[in-house]
Structures are given as structure tokens and as C-alpha cells.
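Q: Got a minute? One more chain.
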Amino acid sequence: MIGESGWLNPAEFPPRGERDPPVDPQTLIKPSPALVARGKELYESNCSTCHGRMGLGDGPAAGTMTPRPRNFTIPDGWINGPEIPGIFKTLTEGVKGTSMTSFDYLRKRDRMALVHFVQSLGAFPHKTGSQQAMEALAKELAAPGERVPNKIPSAWP
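A: Always. Here it is, folded:
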């Protein structure tokens, strides 16, 4: 019978999720103290295990990874580049052949907050990106609002 497994009965609690409204891309492309603070919070819970608290690529899990996680404090060796569109691409798609997985389950606004925090870790000058890349990113960010599924587990294998 439905509901006897101990999980929520989908007839009584249908999956709803959330719908984020569209945002003005310029509010996400320009770093702000609020975006960087949100990025720091997300970084600490999602990224510091591998990349370390200061972004040096020396987190507790780093020693088990080949290649080692990215050191965000230096300008060299970034697969997709240290510019805004490149970091966003890395967060969205991950990096094949590495332990860097996709974080596409995070809202676009949260991925952009992470972009700004990651850039804040480096002491080198960060460019925004080419005009063409920034226009493409702005178009992606301006897309219709996102549907974020609810996170209630439905079953264990």
C-alpha cells in the first residue's frame, strides 16, 4: 500500500519543487558584497573539502585526487580560464578527467555567487571575459526562471 514504506505518500504530498523567477543578469555578473558572501557560504559547504579553505587546492580530500584540485590563488593552468564565463562553465559542466564534478544542480544565481567568491581568492587581476562570452553568459542567466525540484527522497535502493 502507498505510504506504508515510511516515505511520504505522493498522493498526499505531491512533488512541488520551486520556481525561481528570471533575474536581471547584470545583478549577477557584477560582484557585490552579498553575492561574495553567499559564494563564501556555498564554497565552505561544497568546495573547501577539495580546494581548501583558502583555495590553495589543499583540502582534506585533495591528497586522494589525480590531478590535484585547482589552486585558485594563481593565474596559471585554469582549464576554462579564470574569467567569469570560464568559472561558470566549470561549475556547470565539471571538468572531464578530473574529480571536478558538475554543480549544475545549484541555482544559476548560486553558481554566480561561487564564481565571484572563487575570483576573490586570487591575488591576481581577474578579467570579466570577452565581450562575446559575457553576452552569451548574460543570455543564459536571463533565460526564463529555473525550476528547482524538491529535495525529499522518494526511496532507497
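A: Residues 152-157 have pLDDT under 50 and may be disordered.
Q: Perfect, thanks.
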